[in-house]
Design goal:
Elements: E1 8-19, E2 23-24, E3 30-31, E4 33-34, E5 39-42, H1 44-57, H2 74-86, H3 89-96, H4 100-112, H5 116-124, H6 129-142, H7 145-150, E6 151-156, E7 159-164, E8 167-169, E9 172-174, E10 187-190, E11 195-198, E12 203-214, H8 216-222, H9 226-242, E13 251-261, E14 278-281, E15 297-300, H10 302-311, E16 316-323
Antiparallel strand pairs: 1-12, 1-13, 2-3, 4-5, 5-9, 6-7, 8-12, 9-12, 10-11, 13-16, 14-15
Length: 331
């Protein structure tokens, strides 16, 4: 299947209401904040985790995931995946189908190997470099959607290679000033024989914005296809509300807008798309401290609308837009 043929930039907005969008473990799990600007922050890894968990709900193969209920890092996961391949003859047939040269090389390795460790050592040898790369590419391009999107790096048992993800995201930040809920000592923590009050840090309201890119050149490395991009658009929109927990409840998507460039134009042609959205408190709210819902803000997309209107058919090939009820943009 062909990889994506055009670069694109996207803007994703979602709201967080009376919750903790992304706790900071270095700050007692308080919501991440830039206190100089009173801006709420969310890491790209937090958003990617939502998307990966959503993919797992839909039974897609996800590389960065738990193994039998235990957290594993990418290197451990790769070792588990390769060992699974080595012990499953049906899977071996699937991987090497139509590749007689690679199948022959693999069978030779297996004939010499006594166990998984010796297989890894054999694959490290220079004469098996091509087979090593073939197996890794199969794992990346044909099995794991999250690696095709976000990339990964491996350095285990001779499988050493970094895949730069075609999908890259900045940290998200709020477009409005955000203030914490004053009362935080409201959680009961159950111990073996007693219970105590714990901290429960939340913010009142945050309209969070992410800027990201999809790069057609990196897509060739991981095998990212148009179908994968459709899964991503579905994931980024539905993942957050699909995974409610006590501290993450009340988070909803508001806007996804993707600018797909014509040939010859690269990511970031217009800079960070968040710079084209203006937000201020509504006349009723009067002050960011009193904002509790989306309608307490005036969100102005007019500069983004003008950018798109001025460049559609020239720099811009297509625009994909999805909005929540009550959000309107002319694109």
């Amino acid at each position: 299947m062909n990889t994506i043929q055009n670069n694109s930039d996207f803007l994703f907005l979602y709201e967080a209401i009376n919750c903790n969008p992304n706790g900071d473990p270095d700050q007692e799990n308080k919501p991440r904040m830039d206190y100089d600007t009173q801006t709420n922050l969310v890491t790209d890894t937090r958003l990617k985790r939502y998307i990966r968990d959503y993919f797992m709900q839909k039974d897609y193969d996800v590389f960065v995931s738990m193994e039998e209920g235990t957290k594993v890092n990418p290197d451990q996961k790769l070792e588990i995946v390769v060992n699974r391949l080595l012990s499953d003859s049906k899977l071996v047939d699937e991987y090497f189908g139509g590749e007689p040269e690679m199948r022959g090389a693999f069978d030779k390795v297996m004939e010499k190997a006594k166990d998984a460790d010796s297989v890894f050592k054999e694959l490290q040898k220079a004469k098996n470099k091509k087979l090593n790369a073939f197996i890794l590419d199969k794992i990346v391009k044909e099995t794991y959607l999250d690696i095709r999107l976000f990339g990964s790096a491996f350095a285990v048992g001779g499988f050493t290679r970094a895949y730069t993800g075609p999908l890259q995201l900045n940290w998200g930040y709020s477009l409005n000033k955000v203030y914490p809920v004053d009362s935080d000592s409201i959680v009961t923590i159950m111990n073996d024989d007693s219970s105590t009050f714990g901290k429960d840090y939340r913010i009142h309201y945050s309209l969070l914005a992410f800027h990201g890119v999809a790069n057609k050149f990196a897509a060739k490395t991981t095998g990212l296809t148009d179908e994968d991009m459709e899964h991503f658009r579905d994931g980024i929109w539905n993942a957050i509300p699909s995974l409610p927990t006590r501290s993450k409840l009340n988070q909803y998507p508001k806007l996804y807008l993707e600018i797909i460039y014509n040939d010859g134009y690269h990511n970031g042609h217009f800079g960070d798309l968040r710079d084209f959205v203006d937000v201020k408190p509504s006349e009723v709210a009067g002050d960011f401290k009193k904002v509790r819902k989306y309608n307490d803000l005036e969100v102005d997309f007019s500069r983004l609308e003008k950018l798109i209107a001025d460049n559609k058919g020239k720099v811009i090939k297509d625009v994909k837009v999805k909005t929540a009820e009550g959000v309107s943009i002319n694109a």
